[in-house]
């Protein structure tokens, strides 16, 4: 390890209820999927360590509630967040429209230099798609966002999107990172050259994590 160790970054997952935010976190940390996850109440925090080359990045991942009745609490989680995943359901156009509101709120209330990735989840339901990837990509390009599509159910794209955010937070390859989804295979530990996204070759290990639910700190 070099001196670039123990880098801590708070990130938040934002989006409407039932778009799959908690499922993305579960897939990342446990490599599992459940059809019966309870809706997040307020917010929950997961700590996930990602090793990128000689840098160990600690992601403090805040999974926020998407229900309207908890909306007033959400700005509390923006504070200090250096990165964000704005998640929508590709089978629900309303969730995509609301993603635009989440982005606006984050930019109004969050950190000025926060890295934002727009995430279209549930690509395993391709036959039910109502938000085309070209539509989302156009919106992302217009608003200076990075764009990925994922499936928490199959794992497709999940590690890649969190890896991409960690890489952006480290300032690695930010200027050449293409705003498109990686189609590489999902795995819990992987050593990847992501040629599709012009990544510098990185060694990535997802390490053990701790979870704190309904907590004011992480």
Keyphrases for this structure?
disordered C terminus, alpha/beta, nucleotide-binding, disordered N terminus, Small_GTP-bd, globular, GTP binding, eight-stranded mixed beta sheet, 5 helices, 8 strands, Rossmann fold
What would you say this structure looks like, in words?
Keywords: GTP-binding, Nucleotide-binding. This is Ras and ef-hand domain-containing protein. It comes from Anaeramoeba flamelloides. The chain is of the alpha/beta class and 218 residues long. The chain has one domain: P-loop containing nucleotide triphosphate hydrolases (Rossmann fold). It has five helices and eight strands. The protein has an eight-stranded mixed sheet, with helices on both faces. β2 and β3 form a beta hairpin. The chain is globular and about 40 Å long. It starts with 6 loop residues before the first strand and ends in a 5-residue tail after the last strand. The N terminus and C terminus are likely disordered.
Tally of individual domains: 1
Strand arrangement in the largest pleated sheet: 6-5-4-1-3-2-8-7
Q: Per CATH, what is the topology?
A: Rossmann fold
Fraction of residues in helices? 10-25%
Unreliable runs: 1-6, 66-70, 174-206, 208-217
The DSSP helix count reads 5
Question: Main sheet, how many strands, which sense, barrel?
Answer: 8 strands, mixed
Beta-strand portion reads 25-35%
CATH architecture: 3-Layer(aba) Sandwich
**Which of globular, elongated, flat, extended, rod-shaped describes the shape?**
globular
Element pattern in H and E:
EHEEHEHEHEHEE
pLDDT averaged over residues: 76
Radius of gyration: 16 Å
Calculate the terminal CA-CA distance, rounded to whole Å. 25 Å
Q: What structural class do helix, strand and pairing data support?
A: alpha/beta
| The top level CATH class name | Alpha Beta
CATH superfamily: P-loop containing nucleotide triphosphate hydrolases
Protein name: Ras and ef-hand domain-containing protein
GO molecular function: GTP binding; GTPase activity
Pfam families: Ras
InterPro entries: P-loop_NTPase, Rab, Small_GTP-bd, Small_GTPase
């Amino acid at each position: 390890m070099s001196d670039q160790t123990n880098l801590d970054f708070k990130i938040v997952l934002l989006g409407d209820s039932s778009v799959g935010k908690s499922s993305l976190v579960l897939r990342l940390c446990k490599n599992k999927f459940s059809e019966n996850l309870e809706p997040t109440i307020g917010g929950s925090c997961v700590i996930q360590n990602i090793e990128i080359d000689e840098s160990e990045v600690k992601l403090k991942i805040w999974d926020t509630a998407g229900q309207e009745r908890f909306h007033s609490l959400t700005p509390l989680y923006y504070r200090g967040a250096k990165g964000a995943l704005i998640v929508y359901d590709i089978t629900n156009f309303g969730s995509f429209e609301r993603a635009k509101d989440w982005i606006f709120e984050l930019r109004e209330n969050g950190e000025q230099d926060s890295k934002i990735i727009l995430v279209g989840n549930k690509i395993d339901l391709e036959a039910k798609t109502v938000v085309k990837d070209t539509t989302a990509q156009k919106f992302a390009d217009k608003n200076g966002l990075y764009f990925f599509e994922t499936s928490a159910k199959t794992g497709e794209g999940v590690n890649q999107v969190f890896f991409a955010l960690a890489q952006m937070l480290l300032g690695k390859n930010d200027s050449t990172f293409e705003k498109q989804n990686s189609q590489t295979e999902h795995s819990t530990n992987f050593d990847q050259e992501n040629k599709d996204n012009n990544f510098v070759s990185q060694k990535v290990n997802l390490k053990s994590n701790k979870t704190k639910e309904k907590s004011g700190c992480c």
